[in-house]
């Protein structure tokens, strides 16, 4: 299996190289050259299998010879052993044809654990074999950073550096990043918003001297390994609702477009997905793009669903690549225009996107009202991101079962949940002392040289 860049000019890589590299050297994102498909009987045979067994079958065709089957099975088993639910990703029914897919039973209570726990295992195995060491740098709007730190803390071959927007993550998210005591964990509070953090990380990857000097590796949602790990739960959820014998739809609370893009891959692999619905909060660039064909940046407005507070949605580039018939030069051109503030998608590519993705947005009021209603009517306490999804899903319900991805545990966003429902969501017992642990964080200006200096000082050479 070979991996190519969405901008067409970076070297072609293996799965292992693409995973360790993150961002391609031409500024693009890696994708498999061909998307493997699973047959109808192969999907049907997933019924009744464990999450780990399905994970192996879905991901195996993508990894080439990076790991043997036995190694890969072992790494998958380790990745999900720490989850607090035997099903890993259980479905909860909330209406006759509407289900929540609970993706928050991992160690940091958000769906990002599904990808990050696996990536941690894959990195450790690959680096142990090669004797290399890497510096993982990531930007976070809250959940990626805590999931990355949890996955990499204490690993010998890795320093993990997380940039988060100062004052713009929830207290639980911040504490999950600032309280780990391991010396290879470095939380940096950046003066700026999430897009600034993400831009700094991109700039570090594009500074090839620095990139090679510190052996930079990325685990943001641009990392192909992360997208791949997220494809799995579309299969487990759809199969338990009757796929491949009947289709299933998904609504996905969306920010960086990684999670919903994984759904697109699942569909390309042969899973019968009817609708893929992009749900945004009032930072609605993706909803506007799907309505108008124009991708135009506006400022970021903080919301009660902070993990979706972004305007530049990195993984959307991957969808564009397919919309443009895998024309890397066309994608590179659009991304150049984006530096000037936006671009207009050409007619054919726009038609493809519109036929593939539906969309909707939830205001702050609608989000809070949905949290309240789900508690009152269904007895389910949901996080604000899940509420954005649930609100948007309501207007896409029909004959096909709808699965809304419940992306975080309500206890991760206790203030918003309490304000909406009057209920305090307690943390699971295993992290009940989170508020008592001492914090360790470095505040840094939103400036490339300043961040690079801190990183050089901190890492184990
Ligand atoms: C990251 C995140 C999202 C958005 O996912 P993307 O893959 O960036 O679109 C939604 N909800 C929660 C809780 C998240 O942590």
Short recap of the structure:
With 461 residues, the protein is of the alpha/beta class.
Describe it for me?
The chain is α/β, with parallel strands linked by helices. It has a domain of 218 residues: Rossmann fold (3-Layer(aba) Sandwich), CATH 3.40.50.1100. The chain has 19 helices and 15 strands. It is globular. The mean pLDDT is 95. The chain binds pyridoxal-5'-phosphate (PLP). Pyridoxal-5'-phosphate binds next to helix 11.
Write the layout of secondary structure elements.
Layout: E1 3-5, H1 15-21, E2 30-32, H2 40-44, H3 51-59, H4 69-81, E3 91-95, E4 98-102, H5 112-130, E5 134-139, H6 143-152, E6 158-165, H7 171-178, E7 185-190, H8 194-206, H9 208-213, E8 216-218, H10 224-240, E9 248-253, H11 258-268, E10 273-280, H12 285-292, E11 294-296, H13 316-323, H14 328-339, E12 342-344, H15 347-356, E13 358-361, H16 364-378, H17 384-394, E14 402-406, H18 414-421, E15 442-444, H19 448-458
Parallel strand pairs: 4-14, 5-6, 5-8, 6-7, 7-15, 9-10, 9-14, 10-13
Antiparallel strand pairs: 1-2, 3-4, 11-12
Helix pairs in contact: 3-4, 3-10, 4-5, 5-6, 5-10, 6-7, 10-11, 13-15, 16-17, 16-18
């Amino acid at each position: 299996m070979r991996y190519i860049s969405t901008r067409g000019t970076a070297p072609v890589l293996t799965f292992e190289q693409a995973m360790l590299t993150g961002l391609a050297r031409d500024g693009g994102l890696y994708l498999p050259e061909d998307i493997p498909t699973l047959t109808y009987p192969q999907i049907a045979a997933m019924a009744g299998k464990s999450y780990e067994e399905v994970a192996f079958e879905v991901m195996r065709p993508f990894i080439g010879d990076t790991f043997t089957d036995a190694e890969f099975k072992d790494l998958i088993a380790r990745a999900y052993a720490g989850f607090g639910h035997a099903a890993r990703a259980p479905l909860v029914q909330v209406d006759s044809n509407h289900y929540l897919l609970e993706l928050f039973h991992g160690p940091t209570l958000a769906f990002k654990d599904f990808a990050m726990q696996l990536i941690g295992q894959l990195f450790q195995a690959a680096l142990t074999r090669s004797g290399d060491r890497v510096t993982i740098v990531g930007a976070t709007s809250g959940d990626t950073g805590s999931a990355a730190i949890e996955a990499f803390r204490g690993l010998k071959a890795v320093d993990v550096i997380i940039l988060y927007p100062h004052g713009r993550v929830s207290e639980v998210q911040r504490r999950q990043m600032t309280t780990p005591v391991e010396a290879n964990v470095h939380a940096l509070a950046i003066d700026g918003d999430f897009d600034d953090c993400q831009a700094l990380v991109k700039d570090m990857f594009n500074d090839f001297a620095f990139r090679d000097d510190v052996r930079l590796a990325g685990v943001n949602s641009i990392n192909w390994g992360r997208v791949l790990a997220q494809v799995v739960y579309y299969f487990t959820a759809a199969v338990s609702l009757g796929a491949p014998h009947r289709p299933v739809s998904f609504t996905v609370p969306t920010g960086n477009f990684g999670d919903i893009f994984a759904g697109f891959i699942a569909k390309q692999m042969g899973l019968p997905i009817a609708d893929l619905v992009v749900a945004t909060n009032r930072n609605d660039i993706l909803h506007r793009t799907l309505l108008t064909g124009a991708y135009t940046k506006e400022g970021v407005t903080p919301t009660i669903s902070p993990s979706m507070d972004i305007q530049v949605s990195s993984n959307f580039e991957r969808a564009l690549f397919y919309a443009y018939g895998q024309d890397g030069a066309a994608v590179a051109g659009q991304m150049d225009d984006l530096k000037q503030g936006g671009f207009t998608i050409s007619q054919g590519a726009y038609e493809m996107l519109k036929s593939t993705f539906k969309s909707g947005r939830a205001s702050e009021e609608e989000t809070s009202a949905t949290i309240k209603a789900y508690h009152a009517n269904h007895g389910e306490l949901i996080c604000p991101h899940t509420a954005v999804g649930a609100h948007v899903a309501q207007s896409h319900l029909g004959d096909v079962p709808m699965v809304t991805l419940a992306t975080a545990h309500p206890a991760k966003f206790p203030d918003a949940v309490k304000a909406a429902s009057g209920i305090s969501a307690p943390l699971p017992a295993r992290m009940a002392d989170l508020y008592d642990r001492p914090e360790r964080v470095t505040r840094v200006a939103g400036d490339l040289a300043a961040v690079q200096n801190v990183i050089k000082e901190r890492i184990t050479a």
